[in-house]
Amino acid sequence: MSAMLKITLPDGNVREVAPGTTPADIAAAIGPGLAKAAIAARVDGELRDINRPLEQDATLALVTAKDEADALELARHDFAHVLAEAVQALFPGTQITFGPSTDDGFYYDFAPNPERGPFTDEDLPAIEAKMREIIAANKPLRREVIARDTLIAQWQAAGETFKAQWAAELPQGEELTVYHSGAPDSADSWYDMCRGPHLASTGRLDPSAFKLTRVSGAYWRGDQNNAMLSRIYGTGWLNKKQLAEHLTRLEEAAKRDHRKLGAEMDLFHLQQEAHGSVFWHPKGYLIWRQLEAYMRRAIDDAGYREVKTPQVMDARQWETSGHWGKYRENMFVIPDEVPNVDDEGPLVSDDADWMALKPMNCPAHVLIFRQGIKSYRDLPMRLYENGCCHRNEPHGALHGLMRVRQFTQDDAHIFCREDQIVEEVRAFCALADRIYKDFGFTYSIKLALRPEKRFGSEEMWDKAENELRAAVAAAGLNTPEFGWEELPGEGAFYAPKLEWHLTDAIGRTWQVGTIQSDRVLPERLDASYVGEDGERHRPVMLHRAIFGSYERFIGILIEHYAGRFPAWLAPVQAVVATIVSDADEYAGDVLAKLRAAGIRAEADLRNEKINYKVREHSLAKVPNLLVVGRREAEEGKVALRVLGSERQSFLSLDEAISRLANEARAPDML
């Protein structure tokens, strides 16, 4: 008889079971309720199928729908497989490739039968119906380990050239697994290559908790030199209620789309003559200027000194810093020579030295720090720049203001001594907290830890990570209230980082602010200061930003506020609208006094009905409308309509101006 396995449960209880026992067996032994609720298991921390046999002593935690993150991952993975099975059942000759889960659903890439042609959105209802049929059949999902050569031969025999290629390229020695849907020998059996895990059967999915959303093109493995595939997207949840809430959020998000509102409000535009770079219109750039002024006040108060550095730097500088090897494919490079002006010959010679538009500001700030001898008394030195950067993002990755090629960072680097790190990071945490709250955001904070490929020693990374932990603890932010979490492997190649994830008005999260504790770049670029002992020492370099980039932050604000900016940010804070032309002169007086009080105001004297004017300025998201007619002119009053309110207030002009002037003040100036 084989030795019994010792399985340790979360409460510390140890159960002895025979080899081959499954987590489902243990759940059933504990009680029928848990047997019904358990959908998967964590074995020594690894998420596994509920019916996968246990092979050795292990810790075991049973997963139920209450473990929402794991449950959603499993459900979405299963929906992707059911989607692939449904497509192949409906459209014979379609090849499958792969289909992962996503943050809110799943997708699968297909190579349609050439005679049939690419899939379209019109195909989605039939595919959804077939998926529900497969779910209703409650087909068991069974894992099988299979030999590499056997699997490749099976894929080739089935005409699945993409799967055969993928299987052949997986690392030698890696265990290959497939998942069967249905009994292996049944007529409707289907399988796919997958690491898993999966639910026990298709019937564990809620057939009313998913929706296919759209079809797009996608290159095999993301390479435009490869075959074009059809990608079918879907959203998947645990139940119908979650799906309905998500679809409502999507509908609300569409209304708030910054690209749509940016055009309606005349804030900015983008066009192909400058891919990924923003054309700011006067009203949009006014928002930018308000943010820039706000941030300058904040950094001035916090002891930063603003600098300005070159856009173009020699490629050798980027090689020394390490960015050339890591970011070169995303850098715009420029030959350092006069181009050939003749019709004959190459534009640039083979002898040209190379320069690059800066993709980040860090090395330039080190060069400023290195000018002159620095003493330990000079530290911390906080250098700030509204730094314009360029990154050569692929055309297909560009997205409005959220992902661009030219962007401006509210970037700063703090050069400090070892003993100053925790206090500097704590102070930054407090500054970021105040700023995010001024814009109405809540946030969570995460610590991104060392990646697999990195510069620096293990000792250096240990110190840097622990310093950030200590600073967050000192700021009181390492609590569940602030969503404190550590993210293994997600740090930069030169430093761990704290990340601020903002939650907007409709519950979406945006990763925005960061601070990184870097000992690598000062070493590579030979930054030093003279210590109290008279010897040279390396400063630690804290990379930090709060907005992240002005472009993306403005895009987030447009969607967060749905275009209804608070008065201090609104491009036009008030419009004076006349009811009759007899009030034009008085409207001019009102406008002059508003502007004298520092309020950004305009007048609408058009010969239009007042209801038309009210509707038009409401659509333009003007926060305050001052309506004036004969009566208001005679009495020196205005009828004040606040955006979003059905009521209007009759106020004296002085009272209205006092109220609007107070509302128009930035939150840090109240």
Automatic annotation (TrEMBL):
SUPFAM superfamilies: Class II aaRS ABD-related (SSF52954), Class II aaRS and biotin synthetases (SSF55681), TGS-like (SSF81271), ThrRS/AlaRS common domain (SSF55186). Residues 3-64 form the TGS domain. Keywords: Aminoacyl-tRNA synthetase, ATP-binding, Cytoplasm, Ligase, Metal-binding, Nucleotide-binding, Protein biosynthesis, RNA-binding, tRNA-binding, Zinc. GO terms for biological process: threonyl-tRNA aminoacylation. Its main location: cytoplasm. Its cofactor is Zn(2+). InterPro entries: aa-tRNA-synt_IIb, aa-tRNA-synth_II, aa-tRNA-synth_II/BPL/LPL, Anticodon-bd, Anticodon-bd_dom_sf, Beta-grasp_dom_sf, TGS, TGS-like. One of its GO terms (cellular component) is cytosol. It is found in: Cytoplasm. It holds the Pfam family TGS. Residues 257-566 form the Aminoacyl-transfer RNA synthetases class-II family profile domain. The gene is thrS. Binds 1 zinc ion per subunit. Its EC number is 6.1.1.3. It comes from Sphingobium xenophagum. This is Threonine--tRNA ligase.
